[in-house]
Input
Amino acid sequence: MRTIEREPESETARPGRAGAGFHPVLIGLGLMLVAFNLRPALSSIGPLLPGIRAETGLSGAWAGALVTLPVLCLGVFGRLAPVLVRRIGPDAGVLAALVVLALGLALRGLGGLPLLFLGSVVAAAAIGIVGVILPGIVKRDFPDRAGLMTGLYTALLCLGAAAGAGFTVPARHALGLGWEGALMLWAAPALVAAALWLPFVRGRPMAAAGPRPSGRLWRDPLAWQVTAFMGLQSSLAYIVFGWLPAALVDRGFDIVAAGLVASVSALAQGALALLVPTLAARRPDQRPWVILVVSLPLVGFTGLLAGPLAFAWGFALLLGLGLGGCFGLALTLIVLRAGDPRAAAELSAMAQGVGYCGAALGPFLVGIAHDLSGGWGLPAALYAGLCLAAASFGWLAARDRTVRI
Output
């Protein structure tokens, strides 16, 4: 097994907030609330997309761009996270990104397609930054419980995705809102998360500038395998977030029922998102978990797109369990394949920065495949191919190795 060449610890590499007087439970609750806010911005668009298209005349290509652009921004702006951490520290970096997230969510609801696209970009940029920072915080504050904490915050992230998918349309109807107002509602929990995260920033001194990335990670095959698995499994998830409700409406579901199926699928993600990181971290080799978690969305999503609708709820359950397990395993591999908080932060930046850029192609290609074929059979085949690619790279990334930095 390869070993890591360690460098002197920076502020971001020192474990724990005990010196600041914070109980681990409070830290964990703060992380959970932050994690909850990292997906409603993405999952709330899908259930409203048919109505947005009908009201605005948005074409299929632009609808695909609306789904794809935020995923691309996760990767592009996630690369800024290490710079932000070096300047103001990880805790202040999370706070700043939460404020920007609330701003982006509010912009989406001010009316019109330009602000919808702009707000989506701003919100996704903030999510990309927080997502990159969190694995390093987990490695720093919970070095002996990394699997458990990764599972917990991944489960809350999935719960946020389920809330965005399932509650946006009912909230719109209950409050008599347009699609703009329904999207703006999600700025409120982001502001609450920012307010409750503020004490963690005040309770720690400003971080000194840490060492810059050495660049060796970009030449490590294992780092690229982790990155490829992160990107491919993310593509699987964002295809579902963006296109599942529209596909179900095309297949005969009304918009509320389609949103509920998507919500049930997203809610089911929490089960394996919690269990897989906790259990996988107990062993040095995670390859059996790769096969399990990738096979479930392969069956679930292709079944929803091309299978008998009588089994739709069962397919949705399998899909959700698999996507939650995939995401939880991807984040766990970042932590396990890194030997210290600095390596975890660098690998997280690479895996999520590059991975999400590649993941953005998935929803876009599905939109093109649907337009070309006029149905959902070709998109289902494309999804199956992505599942096989994810399994291949995940198998390599799950071996008992560590990256070099």
Q: What stands out?
A: The chain has a mean pLDDT of 83. Residues 45 and 65 are 12 Å apart (CA to CA). The chain has 17 helices and no strands. The radius of gyration is 20 Å.
